[in-house]
Every structure is written in C-alpha cells, then in structure tokens.
Amino acid sequence: MTDLSRAQLAQYIDHTLLKPEATMADVRALAAEAVELGAYSICISPNMLSEAALGGQPLELGDVKIAVVAGFPSGKHVPEIKAAEAARAVADGAHEVDMVIDVGAARAGRFDLVEAEIRAVREAIPGALLKVIIESAALDEEQIVAACHAAEAAVADYVKTSTGFHPAGGASVEAVRLMRETVGDRLGVKASGGIRDYAAAMAMIDAGASRLGLSGTAKVLAECPE
C-alpha cells in the first residue's frame, strides 16, 4: 500500500458537499473544514458561488481550490447548457469543473456525442481544470475505455468515476485501475462515490487515482496511521 502522511493524503482530496438540501451555512462550514484539514479543494454545487448565495462575503479558503459540478447529477443536459453552466461557474470563481457526460449516449455507443459535449465544455473554460464524470458503475469495461478516450480527445484534464448519486454505485478499484491504464499519465483519474474510510481511499490511490472525492474527509484522515 502507498505510504502517505495525513497532509499528503489531504492533498488528494476534493472535500465535497453536493446534497440538494445544502445551505450556504453548510458550504461555509465545508470551506472552513477544508482549510483546517488541508484538503486540496472543495467541490460544491454551482449556485453556491453565485453573488446571491455569497451575499458579498466570499468563501474564506486560503490556498484551497474551488471545484464546481456541471450537468449534475444526470448528465441529461444539452452541451450548450453544460458549457454555459461551466463558464458561469468559472466566472463566479471556480478553478475546476466536474462535468457529467450523457451516460445514455455512452451506453448506446455514441462516443462522438460524448466527445462533442466534453469539447463544448472544454472550449467554454479554457483556463480551468476539467474533470469528466463517466459514471463508471453504469458502464461496461469497453464503454469505460471509450469514455476515457473521448475525454482525452476533447482535451479534458481528468476522468472521474462517479457522481455518487447513481443507483449503480460509485467508485471501484477495478474501474479506477482500468481508467488509469487507459489514460496513462496523460490525464488525472479521480475516484469518487462511496469512499468512506482510509483503507478504501488508499486502495483507490494504489489503483491509480490522483484525486479523491470525499464527503467524509475528516473521518478518513483521522484513520491515517501517522
């Protein structure tokens, strides 16, 4: 197993809050906890960065980055809407965008459509990091590989396993390993969905994950043998 200190492991983590019932107070608490824990970023819903939500009081994050989701959680949005949502998030201060592909298009073998929608988002946020959520638990191995190829062809920066909201499940070691084998060292791989303890987090990193999406960050870091 990879040997990481607590601080090193924290730098893999997107500290995540995407519950529909989340309030701005919850997001501010998330931000404070991310700073305290030394997480790499927070991952939040796009409306939580709007001026209306912030009320003129920006999030206090220090060096912690902001990631925002687009086309979340279903992916069933036309490419122009995903691109506009991503562009607005970056304009509002997001450094990274985690977009959901049209999983149905992937299951139907329409990877031309998948690549086109990723490219539309990529072109809308040229200065930001783009992660592509492929919902790996809903795809077979051939489809996972093809989705990764589409993301790479569209110049994404990362492929990501899951939204954490799909009934098929979240990240698996097998999916992460396949995604890493497919993209090599050319793209990052983010494991997200159902990672609830230190052992699971480290298994994902050993399989090739370079970022982790966690909501229970404090618990996972507390289990780190340091």
From TrEMBL:
It catalyses: 2-deoxy-D-ribose 5-phosphate = D-glyceraldehyde 3-phosphate + acetaldehyde. Pathway: Carbohydrate degradation; 2-deoxy-D-ribose 1-phosphate degradation; D-glyceraldehyde 3-phosphate and acetaldehyde from 2-deoxy-alpha-D-ribose 1-phosphate: step 2/2. Keywords: Cytoplasm, Lyase, Schiff base. The active site is at residues 98, 160, 190. Pfam families: DeoC (PF01791). InterPro entries: Aldolase_TIM (IPR013785), DeoC (IPR011343), DeoC/FbaB/LacD_aldolase (IPR002915), DeoC_typeI (IPR028581). Its EC number is 4.1.2.4. The keyword Magnesium does not apply. The keyword ATP-binding does not apply. It is an enzyme of class 4 (lyase). GO terms for molecular function: deoxyribose-phosphate aldolase activity. Its main location: cytoplasm. Belongs to the DeoC/FbaB aldolase family. DeoC type 1 subfamily. This is Deoxyribose-phosphate aldolase. It comes from Ammonicoccus fulvus.
